[in-house]
Amino acid sequence: MTKAELIEGLSNKLPLPKGDAERAINLMLDDIIAALKQGERVNISGFGTFSVSSRQARTGRNPKTGEAIQISASRSAKFKPGKQLKDSLNEGLGQAASS
Length: 99
Fold this sequence. Notes:
By secondary structure, the protein is α+β, with helices and mostly antiparallel strands. The chain is about 40% helix and about 25% strand.
């Protein structure tokens, strides 16, 4: 699903023009990004948790030449699905898949 499809779905499910649906999605995403930039966790009950992961600077290798390169420190977003999301993805798969 793309962002455009998400906007289309919201517009169809609620009595909203596409422009308003797009603004609503953008505001929600902007708030999630702002919280992550500040190092906060974002917990959406029933869906999952977004958090920030930090990686230290390290030495890596260029796979083509084998030359040592310096990889700078970075931050990245992580997502951990919630129980309700995991359960809904595994519905109907039987006991073996859920263990």
